[in-house]
Specification:
By secondary structure, this protein is α+β, with helices and mostly antiparallel strands. The chain has 15 helices and 14 strands. It has a seven-stranded mixed beta sheet with strand order 1-4-5-9-6-8-7, with helices on both faces. Strands 10-14-11-13-12 form a five-stranded mixed beta sheet. A two-stranded antiparallel sheet has the order 2-3.
C-alpha cells in the first residue's frame, strides 16, 4: 500500500548576464508500507535512466572487531541472490546494454544501474532480489575476504594511502570516522559469515533504504513498479542501531608521522568541520575554492608561483552525516621541507582570519561552485548520486538548499568560519617522511 505522495515544487531558472539563478529540483517523493523510500526525478532528454538503491549503512555504523564489514558486504552483493547466480549480476546488466557498479562510504552504501528505461523493471527485480535473498555462502565469503584483504595490502603499501589513514585515525579519537572504510586487517580476518549475515539482515532492509530513479520516466509508473518488486519485502524486525558516539571537541594539536619508502615528503593538515547540509558546508566549500580552486587561487599563487615551495597545495571540505574534516594536502618541491610548507600555509590562513577575502574572490568562487553543481546535473547518475547521498544523510532537500546557501554567504562569513574551524587546537598534522629504498641509502 502506498503512502501519501508529494510533488515538490519545480522552479528552474536560467543563467542571466549578471548572476546564476537558483534552481530547485522537482523530486517526486513516495514510500512503501515496508518503509522503503522512493525518489523520482524526471529528465526526458534521452530514453535512459539511472536506477539506484541507497542503504543507510557505511563504516560509520561499524564497531571495533568488524571494521570493513560494510565494504566487504558490498562485494558479497555481487554474488548469488534471488534468481541470479554468482557473478551474473553485472553480466546481466551488460547484456541489456547497461552499466552497473557500487560504492561504500563512511555514511552509506549505494548500488546503481544506468540503463535504457525499457529495462528498468529487470533492474528492479535484480536489486529487490539481492535486498532480501542474498545467498551468503561460506566459500564465496572466504574468497571475497581474500579479495578485500588484497585491497587492504595495496593500501598498506601506498605511502599516500597510509598517510591518509593515519591522519584520519589521529583526528577522530572516538567517532567511527577514525577507521578506514576498508577496515583494519585484523578485523577483516576476524569477521565471520555469521557476522556478515547479521549485518546484512540488520541494515539491508527496505526501512533502511532509498530507491532513486532519474531519467525518462513517469513517477507514478515508477512507484507502481517499485511496489511490485520491493513491496513484499518485509521491513527489519528492529530499526538499525543509532550511532551515538560524538567526537569530543579537540583541545590541542595532534601530530603523526609515517615513515615509508617514498620519493617525496607529503603533509596533510586536517581540521574538524561541519555536518553535510549545514549552512557552514557552503561557507567552507567557498573558502576551499578561494584558497585552492585553480591556478589563480591563493595557495597556488603564493606557495607554488611566488614562494616556489610546493609541488601542489589543495584544500577539500568533506562534510558528512556527522562533522567531517577540512583537509589540506600538499607536497614540497625538491630542496624544501614540509615544515617550511606548513608555516607558509598557516601564514595564508592567518591572512584570511585577519583580513578576510575580497568581494571579487567570493564572487568568483560562487560562480565556480554553482557552475560545477549545475553542470553536473546534466547527468542522470550524478543527479541520482546527489539525491541519494543527501537522502542517506539528513534528507534529500539539502540538495535544493545548497545553491541558496551559496548565494547567502558574505565575506564576513568566510572570515568567521576560518577563525572558527581553522584554529591550531582543532588541527591534526600528518607528515610522510620518505625512507630510502634498500640500495639507495647514502
Amino acid at each position: 500500500m502506498l503512502k501519501k505522495t508529494m510533488i515538490i515544487l519545480l522552479l528552474f531558472s536560467c543563467w542571466t548576464a549578471s548572476s546564476l539563478a537558483l534552481d530547485t529540483l522537482a523530486v517526486y517523493e513516495d514510500s512503501l508500507a515496508n518503509g522503503l523510500k522512493i525518489l523520482v526525478l524526471e529528465k526526458h532528454d534521452l530514453p535512459i535512466a539511472s536506477f539506484q538503491v541507497w542503504y543507510r549503512v557505511g563504516s560509520r555504523n561499524e564497531r571495533p572487531g568488524i571494521t570493513g564489514i560494510s565494504h566487504l558486504l558490498e562485494h558479497m552483493m555481487f554474488k548469488a541472490s534471488g534468481e541470479i547466480g554468482s557473478g551474473e549480476f553485472a553480466r546481466t546488466v551488460q547484456s541489456y546494454g547497461g552499466h552497473d557498479n557500487a560504492f561504500t562510504s563512511e555514511d552509506y552504501t549505494a548500488y546503481y544501474e544506468n540503463i535504457a528505461v525499457e529495462f528498468l523493471p529487470k533492474m528492479m527485480e535484480m536489486e529487490a532480489g539481492r535486498m532480501h535473498r542474498l545467498k551468503l555462502d561460506s566459500l564465496e565469503f572466504e574468497s571475497e575476504r581474500n579479495v578485500v584483504l588484497e585491497e587492504r595490502r595495496l593500501r598498506e603499501n601506498s605511502p599516500w594511502g597510509r598517510l591518509v589513514e593515519e591522519s584520519g585515525a589521529a583526528a577522530f579519537m572516538a567517532h567511527p570516522y577514525g577507521w578506514p572504510i576498508l577496515g583494519w586487517p585484523s578485523d577483516l580476518r576476524a569477521i565471520t559469515i555469521k557476522d556478515m549475515r547479521q549485518y546484512y539482515f540488520t541494515y539491508y532492509a527496505p526501512n533502511n533504504a532509498t530507491v532513486v530513479v532519474v531519467g525518462d520516466v513517469n513517477p507514478k509508473e515508477v512507484v507502481r513498479a517499485v511496489n511490485d518488486h520491493f513491496g513484499k519485502i518485509p521491513r527489519a524486525l528492529q530499526d538499525p542501531p543509532v550511532v551515538a558516539t560524538a567526537e569530543p571537541v579537540q583541545v590541542g594539536e595532534r601530530r603523526v608521522s609515517v615513515v615509508r619508502q617514498a620519493q617525496t615528503p607529503l603533509i596533510i593538515i586536517a581540521y574538524h568541520g561541519c555536518r553535510a547540509g549545514e549552512y557552514d558546508e557552503a561557507v567552507l566549500d567557498l573558502l576551499s575554492a578561494i584558497l585552492s580552486g585553480g591556478e589563480s587561487a591563493r595557495l597556488y599563487q603564493s606557495l607554488i608561483y611566488r614562494q616556489k615551495l610546493a609541488l601542489y597545495a589543495e584544500l577539500y571540505n568533506l562534510s558528512r552525516t556527522d562533522p567531517g574534516l577540512i583537509s589540506f594536502y600538499a607536497a614540497p618541491i625538491a630542496g624544501r621541507t614540509t615544515a617550511e610548507l606548513e608555516q607558509a600555509l598557516y601564514a595564508e590562513l592567518e591572512l584570511v582570519k585577519t583580513q578576510g577575502v575580497t568581494a571579487e574572490e567570493l564572487a568568483k568562487a560562487k560562480n565556480q561552485l554553482k557552475a560545477q553543481y549545475i553542470f553536473s546535473r546534466q547527468n542522470n547518475y550524478v543527479l541520482g548520486n546527489q539525491l541519494g547521498s543527501s537522502a542517506s544523510r539528513h534528507g534529500w532537500r539539502d540538495v535544493n538548499n545548497y545553491l541558496k546557501f551559496l548565494d547567502k554567504v558574505k565575506m564576513e562569513d568566510i572570515k568567521q568560519a576560518a577563525v572558527k574551524y581553522l584554529a591550531p587546537e582543532n588541527r591534526t598534522v600528518a607528515t610522510l617522511v620518505p625512507q630510502a629504498a634498500k640500495g639507495q641509502e647514502k
